[in-house]
């Protein structure tokens, strides 16, 4: 399963931008299918799929990341392996084309789970990861989006429900989750965060249990939306706990998680979930969420 963000998306439901999103989601799913068909692991599939989405400027991650209050890019990403709960994450990084790959290196090449800002960049250098220049991230859309957010004196979700007429609705945080034929689960989430966020603000995406979670005994989860809501409800781990403690399958556990998110904090956003048996589910409190899935190796489905 992959997602490309949650929100209103009213202005893209019938035009060629919508087709562009859906094609990107479909191509990413097919890429993941091929990796698994060739014997790749769930972890390899989610890293590759998340990287593809980071490379697509229509999504709010990697090259399409939104801008903070200083007009800068600060990205967050995480990856998790359900085999042993190993995880890697980075927060507040810039000049990196694929933060999810840096997160993977944190997991495999360091004894830590989360590295931030300058320290994460130093680690990227240590691993020989190339820097990309600032202009790699600056699109006219992103600059305009920040201008609008500043005029409104607020931070905005990449697909903000509350600004139905605004162009900024057509961008999305990204995530990928997978189960391989061996039954291993993995999850990855990557984002530029929310528009006009404070310098140093970190969202849910790099926080294990909030924006990302994978445990072979329960499920893989990736979240998208207002990170503050997901951190407060530890939404991804909460969904996993519904499975572990109540034995709920994907659809029921996801519904229970979304009910909890809504009831406790009025949370805005959504999740994609694959359970240990390979069943897929999604849930969101926004009008829409761009996402897609291939369940049990079947047909590829993409949805707004
Ligand atoms: N869910 C992305 C963020 O809040 O940063």
Explain what this protein looks like in three dimensions:
The structure is a single chain. With 304 residues, the protein is α+β, with helices and mostly antiparallel strands. It has one domain (2-303): Glutamine Phosphoribosylpyrophosphate, subunit 1, domain 1 (4-Layer Sandwich), CATH 3.60.20.30. It has helices at 16-37, 42-54, 99-109, 117-126, 140-151, 227-233, 235-246, 250-265, and strands at residues 2-7, 75-81, 86-93, 114-116, 174-179, 185-191, 212-214, 219-225, 269-275, 280-284, 288-294, 300-303. The strands form 2 sheets. It has an 8-stranded mixed beta sheet. Helix 1 (16-37) runs antiparallel to helix 2 and helix 6 crosses helix 8. Mean pLDDT is 91; it is low at 163-171. Bound molecules: glycine (GLY). The site of glycine has 12 residues, from strand 8. Glycine binds at residues 173, 191, 193-194, 203-205, 211, 224-227.
SSE layout and pairings?
Elements: E1 2-7, H1 16-37, H2 42-54, E2 75-81, E3 86-93, H3 99-109, E4 114-116, H4 117-126, H5 140-151, E5 174-179, E6 185-191, E7 212-214, E8 219-225, H6 227-233, H7 235-246, H8 250-265, E9 269-275, E10 280-284, E11 288-294, E12 300-303
This protein binds glycine.
